[in-house]
User: Fold this.
Amino acid sequence: MKKLVLSAVMLCFLISCGHKANQPVSTEVVGQKPSQTKDKVLGVNKKAYLLIKPSENTNKIVNEKYKAATGKIDYLQIDYSCKVKVLEENAEWVKVQVVDPDWLSQTNIGWVKKDVIAFKKATTKLPNLKENRDFKLLFTNDNNSVENHYVLILRKDLSENSLHLFAKSYKKAFDKSGRMNLYVYDTDKLGKLIKKDIAYQLNDAKEYIKLADHFVYMSSFDGMDMYYPYQDLKYKECGGKNWKIEPIE
Assistant:
């Protein structure tokens, strides 16, 4: 599914990357006690935008690379797939820097609420998956460079964290080459639409919305994970309304 992989990974790269000029200024409080978590590498509890200052009334950090490429405004954010380092603390806020993926470390720096960060070790135990109980393999579409697995998820919990753990567990069990793209759907009625998309033929707006609403997760071979990856700008332009992520402005 070359088109899907390249477009999804590129979009995620653009959404995640920013410009050094956008890095927030320090708001360190004079006399503040040293942080007990400073420089520790921590996980992320939920998706959040990176803010310029530790305040509800401040701006999100603009993704300048995405803006330059598309002419549209989007913002830097972090999610479950990131590891971060705490640089500063200010009351209920922390200033963080992404350290994994490492290619975001120079751009993705900003403030978030403390509850976004997993200060205590989160429940990350991978589920033991069983075919026909937890998932059903719809089909594969491999080539010389990557394996592409298209999977129906049978588990009831379709939250972003649950799907993230599902993808990690699936790849641990079945990705023998280390080059797997995993596409997860919540229905097995989309075979024709998926194959139209692979063949660059998914042009109808209603079909795009239908696929986007049931394409719940993607995990690419290079570690990029996306929740409802087709609920994007095109989804909005096609008239999609069943947002499972924060709607695009």
